[in-house]
Amino acid sequence: MKALLDTNIIIHREAGRVFNQDIGILFKWLDKVKYQKCVHPITIQEIEKNPNKNTVDTFRIKLDSYEQLMTTALMTGEVSIVSTKFDVNENDKNDSILLNEVFVGRVDLLISEDKKIHAKAAALNISEKVFTINSFLEKVYAEFPDLVKYNVLAVQQKLFGELDLNDPFFDTLKEDYPGFDKWFHKKANEHAYVTVNNENGKLLSFLFIKTEDRNEFYTDLSPGFTPKKG
Asked: In the chain, which ranges are E strands?
């Protein structure tokens, strides 16, 4: 299996300064499940634009540890249409070139933290092949449970105020539900039930038990719920 890595992931992985602790975990799991870590010619071109020659030389040496795609796939009409709709600068267009490699099947998946890449993947109906670091880790945890060390993977009761609203787990909730942040903060003294990834401390699951008011009815559900406290 070939995993194409977005330029920013390569840069953050090989830079001297650690920008994202999860990148180390990502690379460990790519090796564990025997994915080829692929780098695109576009990524190499972007790195070589760095004005610091020593930095470029260092990256060139480190890039030898990746599987380098030797050519670029011809842009398909479908990806060109999406590119025209979304892309406003050179970086956006380069991202579409990476997506095109997934779309035509030259690589199995793309890993990127770029939200616009994921929006374009959705428009191309290939979201199942484009992952964030966190969603890729969730994928391999599910597919290779025997390789996961569940040291203390237990449900914990936590106050809302003890949880980090910036945890990636809450990203889609904040996007899908306007006002989620305010609702979350108002619950600061209430409890939720969570499980946590032992490797990076990030949330794996979150449960909040809400007692419904007596006057709340759900007539649109089938079978219907009757007002009742268990």
From this structure: 2-5, 36-39, 67-68, 109-111, 130-131, 156-159, 191-196, 203-207
